[in-house]
Amino acid sequence: MYSHGRESPGEGTRLGAASCQPKCAYRCSKASRHKMCIRACNTCCRRCACVPPGTSGNYDVCPCYARLKSHGGRRKCP
């Protein structure tokens, strides 16, 4: 089954688009490049419907979020 990059049920906490903004605001609260972090986090949240808890790490909670990479092969999601 092709999933369009979304997590399968049971992987992390599922979020609607409206829930992404407050989750990403907290996730990026300590980022040095806040606006860039917010933009990347919201993109990842919309694709995966999940944001890991805390301000960094915890990628095991949202595997889809952890798998997304930038064009340079680095992690896309903060």
Automatic annotation (TrEMBL):
Please, which domain of life does this record's source organism belong to? Eukaryota
Alphabetized Pfam families for the sequence: GASA
Which family, according to UniProt?
Belongs to the GASA family.
Write the protein's name. Answer: Uncharacterized protein
